[in-house]
Amino acid sequence: MSSAPTASNTTDNSQQRPPRQRNGPPPPRRQGRNPPPQTRARYQQTNQGLQEKKKPVFVKVDQLKPGTSGHTLTVKVVDQNPVTQKPGAASSHLRPVRIAECLVGDETASILFTARNDQVDLMKPGTTVNLRNAKIDMFKGSMRLAVDKWGRIEVTEPADITVKEDNNLSLVEYELVNVE
């Protein structure tokens, strides 16, 4: 038995649809990391306008809260204690890290500052420093002040600051509570 071709299994070119025509411009392309040159120029034109830099808002030590960052403050260094590294704690291929805990403060309160590497040389007892973009790190439930690579430590002229050492914010122990 031979099967004869029927209309259902044959393909007829007259039944094929023509390609669909688009109405209007093509859809916009997704832009990756670098926008096209005309867009990049538009960004530069808007950013070249005169923009005034914001003046730093200096805060006092007693206004510091856990988990906050971006603080600018002027403090006096009271004491510096180098932290000894455990042998084998750092990898042998990494450069050794110098860490010192410095008690800093102003007339409102005091707090422990964690100085790392080159910061240790700047934080000598008796010096007055401006800390820009400082953050609060939590260490064993207590607050520590730190300046990372995005911040800056500037030694300023000695100011007449009597540090209030009896209000040490690093001695206050905090506990993380989950709120449901």
From TrEMBL:
Residues 24-38 have a biased composition (Pro residues). Residues 64-155 form the Single-stranded DNA binding protein Ssb-like OB fold domain. This is Single-stranded DNA binding protein Ssb-like OB fold domain-containing protein. Gene3D superfamilies: Nucleic acid-binding proteins (2.40.50.140). It comes from the Eukaryota. Residues 1-55 are annotated as: Disordered. Residues 1-14, 41-50 have a biased composition (Polar residues). SUPFAM superfamilies: Nucleic acid-binding proteins.
